TrEMBL record:
It is a peripheral membrane protein. ATP binds at residues 30-37. Its main location: membrane. InterPro entries: AAA+_ATPase, ABC_transporter-like_ATP-bd, ABC_transporter-like_CS, ABC_transptr_BtuD, Metal_Ion_Import_ABC, P-loop_NTPase. Its EC number is 7.6.2.8. HAMAP family: BtuD. It comes from Rouxiella silvae. This is Vitamin B12 import ATP-binding protein BtuD. The lineage of its organism: Bacteria, Pseudomonadati, Pseudomonadota, Gammaproteobacteria, Enterobacterales.
Length: 249
């Protein structure tokens, strides 16, 4: 369980209270500047926020950095590589401590194969394309809390994970995140693709001007009446191929 109690950052987003059950995939949507990244960074314990965050019954303010890193991992929106270390070394910095090496190898391959990183492991992180670097950052974030390596791994916080990824790699990430949730993990993901959210999220938080103005199921939140005033454009909901689709105009 993840609990947020009156979580806020002055001048960035107003107090927000929520409970998220194991196995839930939450998408945060909203225009640029709505407060998505600030909320994610606060849940991660990376911003000087007011209010409380507890993960699996533990208040994050009472945890050491090491304890927190076992419970949650966090992909920030942007981050450029700082040194020319090879990909495998960068990934090793994110692997949970005291893991069985065979289990580590297996998990690493399970994450690297669908993201086509096996042949990039010895390449310096400074010589990757933008999308390749994003895939490496994603594998590192997943590795940190992957439950078969780290049984305390509970929460995955991903700020615009699809940035720079082609459609095949976006689908691959979706499958991996869903597997994490199927094992009882919680994923909280910011997203600009409303149809992607509609098809993938089990819960949606809609943010506008520093406030979560609607939270609940896709059906309850992702409707034209909620979205139009937030984005300032009109929306229609259509059915195609047995699924709902949102069209903006
Ligand atoms: P989003 O991720 O939804 O685009 P952000 O959380 O990045 O929005 O920004 C929310 C608000 O906080 C915006 O008004 C933005 O200008 C402000 N903000 C973002 N980063 C900082 C910062 N480092 N210092 C002060 N204000 C910031
Ligand atoms: Mg952001």
């Amino acid at each position: 369980m993840l609990q947020l109690n009156q979580l806020n950052v002055v001048s960035r987003f107003v107090p927000f209270t929520a409970k998220v059950s194991p196995g839930t995939r939450v998408h945060i949507i909203g225009p640029n500047g709505a407060g998505k990244s600030s909320l994610l960074a606060s849940i991660a314990g990376m911003l000087n926020a007011e209010g409380e965050v507890s993960i699996a019954g533990q208040l994050i303010s009472s945890l050491s950095g090491r304890e927190l890193s076992r419970l949650r991992s966090y992909l920030c929106q942007q981050y450029l590589p700082l040194s020319a270390m090879p990909v495998f070394q960068y990934l090793s910095l994110h692997q949970p401590a005291e893991v069985n090496s065979a289990q580590l190898e297996k998990t690493l391959m399970m994450l690297c194969e669908p993201l086509h990183l096996e042949d990039k492991l010895s390449k310096p992180v400074t010589q990757l394309s933008g999308g390749e670097w994003q895939r490496v950052r994603l594998v590192a974030t997943l590795l940190q809390v992957w439950p078969t390596l780290n049984p305390q791994g509970t929460l995955l916080l991903l700020d615009e994970p699809a940035t720079g990824l082609d459609i095949a790699h976006q689908l691959a990430i979706d499958l991996i995140v869903n597997e994490f949730c199927a094992m009882g993990g919680i994923a909280i993901i910011s997203d600009h693709d409303l149809n992607h959210t509609l098809h993938q999220a089990s819960q949606v938080w809609l943010m506008s001007k520093g406030e979560v103005i609607a939270a609940g199921s896709c059906e309850a939140v992702l409707n034209p009446a909620n979205l139009a005033p937030v984005y300032g454009v009109s929306f229609q909901l259509h059915q195609f191929s047995g699924k709902p689709w949102i069209i903006a105009s």
